Amino acid sequence: MTAAEHGGSADQPAPADEIGSFSQLVRRAAELRPDQAAVIEGGTRWSWGQLADAVARVAAALVQLGLRRDDRIAIQAPTSAQYVALYLGALQADLVVVPVNPAYTLPELEYIVQDSQARVLITSSVAAIEAASELRQRHPGLAHIVLAARTGGGELPTVDELIEGAGEQRHDQPGRTGDDLAVLLYTSGTSGRPKGAMLPVRALLANLAQLAQLSPPPLSPDDRILLPLPLFHIFGLNAGLGMALYFGATVVLTGRFDATETLQAIRDERVTVVVGAPLEFALWAGRPEAAESFRGVRYALSGSAPLSAELVSAYAEFGVSLFEGYGLTEAAPVVTVNLVPAEAGNGWAEPKPGSVGRPLPGVQVRLVDTDDEEVEVGDLGVLEVRGPNLFLGYWPDGAGGPDADGWFETGDLAVADDDGDLYLVGRRG
């Protein structure tokens, strides 16, 4: 399928000002399409109605733990349908989610638990489970350690047991809205200890609304989007899962990446959109069944690392346009994407090799020199971003956030061509 043929149905999301919470996104889809598939993960298949029920039950279970508004809940678990319910349920219970890499060592985990003052840790880490008693002793504010699944954790409760203990109770309140802090996502940056980027509901939803303003919109409720990305990373959490929630599309999750198995999932689940990282696209391209698996895919979108022109060409041979975007945790995350409208007004133009595209609608970018003056077209500059999708600064006091005029310096070096398309060059030293 060529880039000019991309497009979705007319059943598009409500205007951004009508959406104030992630709970509202789930309820809206559950009301419009209660029986349509919302989340698919292996043998787990939840309709929108079932997802809404799972979220409400998780929220009720968390409320029963005695947690208060604004308490932090750290989730250290692999991508799964359960993770989706935990994330959305925590927001619905008025809690702040702290995603944690399951591969973190115990000292790395402890730093985040201590710095965020998390009240709950939901974990699949064997090291964390074995050190549960010591963790609670060293971090008295950590009131609960819960297993993502039963893995020999002794007396520690599981998520499923918490939900069962709440019985038929449901917590259907809106939860986090507007400027409420939704996600505290730790990013290491270039040096030093990881810093917690404070992402409010407003910024997360603003980025989804900005994506929805692309022409044509990137998704429709009829799409099935494959997401082989970790949900502890902002790319998977918001540009992947969040976008599927915003459009009411079906998300197909893979907890562990395997090229053969994911290609099979693309075929079996009739996936129409694939979102991933360059390494995943490279591993797929090397498989003999790749062309057949991608036959029904409308387009693919890559992020998190530079995408080679050779890989774009390889997918073009499959008949699939592979686009690229640029973003960062602090921007929730998408800043630019090369989903550029075709001159004919039907679909998107073929991507320029090496370009990460143009700013999303509602996002401003500029390239500045060492004197903070904007550079000329074609000159190298430091990339700065401004828009409602930006974070509130770093935990706990908002330090390092956008300046008084709303601009945030990314530290990335780039150049722009005459069309306004950006090309990343590296990091400022």
Summarize the structure.
The chain has 429 residues and is α/β, with parallel strands linked by helices. It is built from 13 helices and 19 strands.
Brief descriptors of the model:
disordered N terminus; nine-stranded mixed β-sheet; four-stranded parallel β-sheet; 19 strands; single chain; 429 residues; 30% helix; alpha/beta
Radius of gyration: 21 Å
Level of helix content? 25-40%
Main beta-sheet strand count, sense and barrel state: 9 strands, mixed
Provide mean pLDDT, rounded. 92
Textual characterization of the structure:
This protein has about 425 residues and is an alpha/beta fold. It is built from 13 helices and 19 strands. The strands form four sheets. Strands 2-1-10-9-11-12-13-14-15 form a nine-stranded mixed sheet. Helix 2 (about 50-65) crosses helix 3. The longest helix is centred in the N-terminal third of the chain and has 17 residues, at about 50-65. It is globular and about 60 Å long. The two termini are about 40 Å apart. Mean pLDDT is about 90; it is low at about 1-10.
Topology:
Blueprint lengths: L21 H11 L4 E5 L2 E4 H17 L7 E5 L4 H12 L3 E4 L6 H11 L3 E4 L2 H5 L1 H7 L5 E4 L11 H7 L15 E7 L7 E6 H12 L11 E4 L6 H14 L2 E4 L5 H10 L4 E4 L1 H8 L4 H4 L5 E4 L6 H10 L3 E6 L6 E4 L20 E2 L4 E5 L12 E6 L21 E9 L5 E6 L2
Parallel strand pairs: 1-10, 3-4, 3-5, 5-6, 9-10, 9-11, 11-12, 12-13
Antiparallel strand pairs: 1-2, 7-8, 13-14, 14-15, 16-17, 17-18, 18-19
